[in-house]
Amino acid sequence: MTDYSKLNPNDFTQKDLMLHLLQVSQHTVTREELKEDIADLKGDISKLESRFDKVDIKFEKLEDKISKLDTKFDIRFEKIEDKILKIDTKFDIKFEKIEDKISKVDAKFDKIQWLIIATMFTVVFKDYILSLIH
Questions:
Q1: HSE (CB half, 13 Å, CA atoms) of 10?
Q2: What's the number of CA atoms in the CB half-sphere (13 Å) around residue 16?
């Protein structure tokens, strides 16, 4: 292809004119095709944008579902914590009762020990004690 912009106008022949017109018409067709392609691209872009809008809507729905699940989880977690606290208080009460019983048994055991020791002294020293009394 020849660049006709740098040709001397005096050397411009009819053949050159026809070739130049042919090139210009080819560029014009290319421009028209380009306009069609641009229009097609705009249509494709608008379709993609509508798909993105749908994806955004689905994403928002998913976020809503996740937030609902979070609230359900929080509620269930609070219920579980309440149950654990109730069980903990029950255990505390039962352990206190057990500790009271143990302390009572311990006190009784101390009394029994002293009774056993006193009985042993009495048995061992009964003759001595009786001789002191007589």
A1: 0
A2: 12
Place of tokens 């809008």: 53
Instruction: State pTM to two decimals.
Output: 0.41
Number of compact structural domains in the chain: 1
Domain containing 121 equals: 4-133
- Residue ranges, the chain, pLDDT below 70: 1-5, 7, 9, 27-29
Reported for 108-114, long-range contacts at CB under 8 A and 24+ positions apart, including other chains, are none
Q: In whole angstroms, how far apart are CA 53 and each of 41, 49, 85, 105, 106?
A: 18, 6, 47, 77, 77
Query: Which tokens in the block code for residue 56?
Result: 């955004």
**Per-residue pLDDT tens over the stretch 21-51:** 888 777 666 777 778 888 999 999 999 988 8
